[in-house]
Amino acid sequence: MSDKHRILKSIATVAKELGHTPSILEFAAHAEISRYSLFRLFPKWNEAVRAAGLKPNRLYRRPEDSELLKDWGEVVRKKRAMPSRWAYRLAGKYYPLTHAKRFGGWESVPQAFRNFAKGKREWADVLALLPDPAAKRERGWPNQDAATSKTRGQAQQAPLKDRPTYGNLMHLHNFRHEPVNEQGVVLLFGMLAKELGYVIEAVQKGFPDCEAKRQIGPERWQRVNIEFEFESKNFHQHGHPVTGCDVIVCWRHNWEQCPKHIEIVELSRVIKFLGSPEDGEQR
Fold first, then answer.
1. What is the pLDDT confidence band of residue 140, given thresholds at 50, 70 and 90?
2. The predicted structure's pLDDT at residue 171
3. How far apart are CA 190 and CA 182, in angstroms?
4. Which of 34-43, 185-194, 208-217, 268-277 is predicted least confidently?
5. How do beta strands 220-231 and 210-217 pair?
6. Within 10 A of 77 (CB to CB), how many other CB atoms are there?
7. Three-class SS of residue 211?
8. Which of 126, 207, 228, 260 is deepest in the core (most CB within 10 A)?
């Protein structure tokens, strides 16, 4: 049974048990399917619901600001650190874009939480985990949103030959620019591996680049061989054999003839889904 068929069958089974179309939280509580497996095949929950032959539940309620901030704070408490958008999407109840729209950007959520939790003893442990915004300003760190807005509409300039080049600004904690080469893909995957359900075992120069284990279910892991490429078509151009590789991790997937047995993890798509909204406010 394919992963897709297994997920759709599981959704139908949970719906039959509950007597109604399940929310994603109800599904997660009743099914032994990892969130990575679900989001890899169905970035939006209602896409999976429709594919299972069910009618999406559209009875959404707009959450209060306090509900959004409480849930974000609970994720910080659980992870003992501020979550990336992807980490929050996997662990939280709401879409990161909901927070970004409500509080003026994802980067503004920590300050919104500080204002909400000020003077509330039950959130003291979470506040202690947040970085000091004053220290950040003293270091002169630029505002990412401001930097992005300044580049819009500007004419392209001739590059300087003795300077490095960067990708577009990317709203990801500690990774400011999109990768422009394979090394950037390796680094970005290393940052997201845990959220994607992978544990890296070894990285080497020869083929395949990486040996890892990934979670295929609760308390169940499987070994996979990974090859890193900036674009998936580079795999063919580099002359790699189609055997011995289970997953290609790339920034951009553009290899139409990719063998079906090789899975593609397209990081530009993953980053896009970090703030991709569902049909309603809650997942």
1. very low
2. 58
3. 12
4. 268-277
5. antiparallel
6. 13
7. strand
8. 228
